């Protein structure tokens, strides 16, 4: 599965992330929701750890041990550097998420933040099914991503685009192009198609626990 986030944007990544309110609030909420079900011995996997920004709030707010996966060796190395103070609680896996899920051990919790929107809907459905199949009975899938509501999607998109006016020209043009691709039918996530995709994969208990503009924290349980 290909991540559409272009390499030239990565040098601006910190600046771009700081213009997303969800980078601060939604990531913390996901970590605090995970803390609610924390207990010793839970096996936890992240799909697409990137530079470690998504795992950091979980490591800070829980005592969980994490398997962090990413297809990019560069991202794994940056993640190791950023999360070095938590190295005893982390196992790194450099592999495509879907490929790994086809052969890995089962997990109690699988989570992903701002990754799944990158994939086509055929890939999303395959990934949702693989996640469901690799969760232990009673396990949970935590998702933070841009999932538009039935109404107000254009206004939410426009609000975020205005924030990018503070970026340098190269960064602004790159992120606007990327965000515009996210809204193409083959990629766009909204509440209806995301809920349907998860339920088709086998999840019956799917709840949006928080929404911040277009970004949601969602929990899907395998019962």
Task: Offer a concise description of the structure.
The protein is α/β, with parallel strands linked by helices and 223 residues long. It has helices at residues 7-10, 13-17, 21-36, 55-61, 73-82, 97-101, 121-134, 153-163, 169-182, 191-201; strands at 44-47, 66-70, 90-94, 107-113, 135-146, 205-212, 215-221.
Describe how the helices and strands are arranged.
Blueprint (H helix, E strand, L loop, with lengths): L6 H4 L2 H5 L3 H16 L7 E4 L7 H7 L4 E5 L2 H10 L7 E5 L2 H5 L5 E7 L7 H14 E12 L6 H11 L5 H14 L8 H11 L3 E8 L2 E7 L2
Parallel strand pairs: 1-2, 1-4, 2-3, 4-5
Antiparallel strand pairs: 5-7, 6-7
Helix pairs in contact: 3-4, 7-10
Describe the structure.
With 223 residues, the protein is an alpha/beta fold. The protein has a single domain (7-221), classed as Rossmann fold (3-Layer(aba) Sandwich). The chain is 43% helix and 22% strand. It has ten helices and seven strands. A seven-stranded mixed beta sheet has the order 3-2-1-4-5-7-6, sandwiched between helices. Strand 2 (66-70), helix 5 (73-82) and strand 3 form a beta-alpha-beta unit.
């Amino acid at each position: 599965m290909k991540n559409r986030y272009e390499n030239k944007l990565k040098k601006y990544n910190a600046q771009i992330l700081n213009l997303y309110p969800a980078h601060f609030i939604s990531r913390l909420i996901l970590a605090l929701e995970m803390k609610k079900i924390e207990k010793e011995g839970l096996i936890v996997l992240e799909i697409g750890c990137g530079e470690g920004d998504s795992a950091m709030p979980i490591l800070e707010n829980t005592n969980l041990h994490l398997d962090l996966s990413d297809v990019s060796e560069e991202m794994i190395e940056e993640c190791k550097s950023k999360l070095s103070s938590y190295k005893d609680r982390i196992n790194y896996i450099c592999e495509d998420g879907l490929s790994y899920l086809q052969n890995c051990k089962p997990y109690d919790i699988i989570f992903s933040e701002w990754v799944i929107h990158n994939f086509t809907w055929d890939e999303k459905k395959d990934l949702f099914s693989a996640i469901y199949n690799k969760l232990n009975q009673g396990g949970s899938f935590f998702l933070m991503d841009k999932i538009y509501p039935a109404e107000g999607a254009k206004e939410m998109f426009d609000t975020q685009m205005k924030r990018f006016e503070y970026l340098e020209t190269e960064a602004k043009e790159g992120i606007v192009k990327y965000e515009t691709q996210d809204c193409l039918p083959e990629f766009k996530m909204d509440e209806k198609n995301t809920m349907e995709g998860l339920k088709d994969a086998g999840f019956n208990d799917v709840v949006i626990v928080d929404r911040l503009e277009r970004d949601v924290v969602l929990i899907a349980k395998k019962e």
